Amino acid sequence: MLSRTHLVFSLFVGLLLIQSVSNPIIFLIAVLISTFLPDLDSYTSKFGKRFFSRVLTAFTKHRGVMHSLLFLGVFYFLFYFYFPSISLGFLVGYGTHLLGDLVTKQGLRLFYPFKFRIHGFLKTGGKIESFLFLFFGIFDLFLIFKLIFEVYL
């Protein structure tokens, strides 16, 4: 899945949950940042072109350990105990990224270190993904306007 689709999907889920968190701004920032973290292990991602991720790619393969429930669980619990204010945002952003990649034809080794992959039907960058980008983008705008009108009216 392309980074833009990850972004609008994560934002959509974050906006649906925003009223159930104590600090909505920190929550949304954590959601939006963490949705890009799984792709740090890829040279072709927007953030994978940075120096830090070049070092990381020497030790990991794309859609390997960083695209697994193991990685998500370990880091969620670390954040939960050491940075509780961002833990839920991290879980939502990272989790929606994994869910988005899970439905692609490339699939994921979600239960890393086990070798089997779970594959979906979506072609990365294809017409269905473009539709999903538009769909979630429109609903993001709707939810943002709804939140603004609830606050100011």
What distance separates the N and C termini? 37 Å
Principal-axis shape: globular
- Rg over alpha carbons: 16 Å
Mean pLDDT value: 88
Q: Structural class given helices, strands, pairing? A: mainly alpha
SSE string, helix = H, strand = E?
Answer: HHHHHH
Textual characterization of the structure:
This protein has 153 residues and is mainly alpha-helical. The protein has one domain. The chain contains 6 helices and no strands. Helix 1 packs antiparallel against helix 2 (24-34), helix 1 crosses helix 5 and helix 2 (24-34) runs parallel beside helix 5 (84-102). The chain is globular, with a radius of gyration of 16 Å. The model has no long low-confidence stretch (mean pLDDT 88).
Compile the SSE list and pairings.
Blueprint: H1 3-17, H2 24-34, H3 51-57, H4 69-82, H5 84-102, H6 127-152
Helix pairs in contact: 1-2, 1-5, 1-6, 2-5, 4-5
Supply the key terms.
single chain, 153 residues, mainly alpha
Write a brief caption for the model.
The protein has 153 residues and is mainly α. 60% of the residues lie in helices and 0% in strands. It has one domain.
